[in-house]
Amino acid sequence: MTLLDASLNVLLAVNGFATSPFVLILLAFIGAYLGGRAMELIPFTRRIIERREAQLAERE
User: Fold this and answer.
1) Distances from the Cα of 58 to the Cαs of 13, 24, 38, 51, 54, in angstroms?
2) How far apart are CA 38 and CA 46, in angstroms?
3) Where are the alpha helices (DSSP H) in 19-42?
4) What is the pTM of this model?
């Protein structure tokens, strides 16, 4: 039961951090950064981005 008590205490502490607006803003920035990196690494999305950039270059 002590492991369960410790786990519940940790979950409550994490819940307290997660409801803080500063932590949520930090998580949003981290998520945006990781999403941008994922877009660059996934070949399918990279091709879409390259096509759009090529079309913009042709228009100019």
Assistant:
1) 54, 41, 27, 11, 6
2) 10
3) 21-41
4) 0.50
